[in-house]
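Lab notebook: predicted structure, single chain.

Context: the supervisor wants predicted structures on file for every construct in the current expression panel, including those that have not yet been purified. This is the next one on the list. No modifications to the sequence; it matches the entry in the shared construct table.
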Amino acid sequence: MPFPGAGRRAAPAVALAAVLVATLVGCSGGGGGGTSSASPSPPASAGGSARVTIDNFAYAPSALTVAPGSKVTVVNKDSVAHTLTATAGKAFDTGTIGPGKTATFTAPSKAGAYPYICTIHPFMKGTLTVR
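Prediction complete. Output recorded below exactly as produced.
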């Protein structure tokens, strides 16, 4: 014999569970940890421009391909400061970008992959590919 009132409580609980599952699936985005599983962006033309957005302590896209000498604009949508700094040599460095601010740098002229980090939050990582 079922518990008294069990049918009245089960329907809202099932509906709530369905909404939570739908929300989690919709927010997953298939990636994880701020990385992108998508292929790198198409190259910006020489002298062209590209954009990286910092949001929720992650670079988007985290893998960007540009032509040599392209301008790269970095937009900080977080409420704290960040940088976008090449990890090897001094290929590029935006310096500190305040919350809601923008910085621009010129991609290196030499083809190659240039890993970068935020020097304030080193767990933030990305790669600029020049070709």
